[in-house]
Amino acid sequence: MWPHGLNTSALLLVFLIGNTAANFCITNGPLGMITGSIHDWQITASSTYPQDWDKGCSEKYARVYLPNKLGWCAKYKSSSEWLQVDLGVAARVTGAMTQGRGDGVEWVTSFMISYSMDAFHWQYVTDHYGNQRVFEGNTDSYAIRHVYLDKPIIARYIKFHTVHWHRHPSMRVEILGCQLCKEPVGLPPYGKISASSSRKFKKKSSCQPDDGNIFSTKGWCPKKQDTNQWMQIDVGPPTLITGVISKGRGDTKRKHWVERFKISYSNDTQVWYFYKDAHHLDPKLFGGNNDKNSVRTHFLNSPFVSRYIRFHPIEWKGRISMRVGLLGCPFTGVCTDGFMRVNDDTPCVENLAYKKESWINSKRHYKRHIRNHLTEGHASRAVDGVMDLNLQGCTFLDNLYGDNPVWTVDLGDTTDVSGVIIYTWQGEGQEKGGKSFREYMKNLDKLVVYIDEDLREEDESYASGNMCNYVSSLNNALFHQKLILQCIRRHKGRYVLIEAWGVPNSWSRLFSAVLCEVQVFK
Ligand SMILES: *[C@@H]1O[C@H](CO)[C@@H](O)[C@H](O)[C@H]1NC(C)=O
């Protein structure tokens, strides 16, 4: 199906985008000539009638529904003329719309379509017999005609070849289909922005990493002006990146913007790769901005899959400052290991607790729980990333060794915490005989979550600590399978603690809480 010599990155792209497009693309609409999401620079032609001779003729006017008399007009009346549209990112194309120039005299009566992934290897759309298909074009200068392809194609570049015309080969077009991977990805609050350095934080002032997102009105600025500075976006689970966007700094009277930059990417922030175009040995130097607020977009000819993407300013005007964004395929699959969704419709974000060190009560008495001889109930079961809600896959907290048992996870670093999700036990996997955990759970009154910078001394109460939030047994709230506890305010801390409280004045002192999975999110 694909011509020999198609490079591997293009093949990868066909696979990635082709697969996603084939599996998930359900819309079938205009791809951007009408709306302008296809920029003027993405429209080119074999030749164009000089504007000095006719102001109405330009590639950028090759859009259906533009006012009459505007359109693309080939310079020559020749059947080897073509109009090319770069869709930026590969799309699943099902058809096209064509229109004459709207001057009453010029239109294209038949045309052919060719397509490509890399603007280098081209194929014609064929008919049933495998011949280059000649499409019926327009019959007057005004009406819009809709043509269908026999079967959809996956392509980034589309060419309209003029075959026959009335008076002059002039036309306006739109391409129809579905395009998945041209959407902003890694946006706040889910995308996390950080930087090599940033100027000191002052109220109302700008320059923080978050000010560098493409929709901000401000800009990120590093402390130093050298080529070692970078701004990083963490998009979450590795995501297909197809384009990069940049702007200058918006909130200063001075002229601060980045004229050239490089891009690097990584899955772990340890091993980095500089972005190179296919067949190039050197990192690509992207053209940046030359004013404060214009948006500059680059579509990548070698899209990549990655979690962390860095922008490295190389040349700048005034001082380094920029706003950046990424285009790609929003991640839709099951969250990969170490990621979670707060609710079913939000993106995958990092689970800060995943496989981190955890313990019950004090770090020294690591495995204490209601039945010491059991292998179940280990503290780490709550952060193993396995959504196993069987008793055997859960952590037990009980008051055998203290009035308020505490489960703790060490996030490794001090970080912002917005909330905690607790998956509770729903009665699965209880062994026969003995007093059931369910009975003990009836004596559980509340779970309180704290976020702390330091560990407390053993037996010191957390009641006055840095509380994030709590959930109580009122209306059985405590016994829902999934408890989402958003911190009342945003906390900074390294340790997340969950403390269990028994029902006051209960006839039996014994209570237990069963934590099957605990997730912590920023
Ligand atoms: C990142 O991981 C994904 C798989 O999860 C892989 O497809 C991709 O190539 C990796 N990217 C880098 C830069 O290592």
From TrEMBL:
Protein name, per record: F5/8 type C domain-containing protein
MF terms (GO), sorted A to Z: signaling receptor activity
| Localization per record | Endomembrane system; Secreted
Q: Name one GO cellular component term.
A: extracellular region
Membrane topology, as annotated: Peripheral membrane protein
GO biological-process terms attached to the record: cell adhesion
Species lineage: Eukaryota, Metazoa, Spiralia, Lophotrochozoa, Mollusca
Domain (F5/8 type C): residue spans on this chain: 25-178, 181-329
**One Pfam family linked to the record:** F5_F8_type_C
Membrane is among the record's keywords: yes
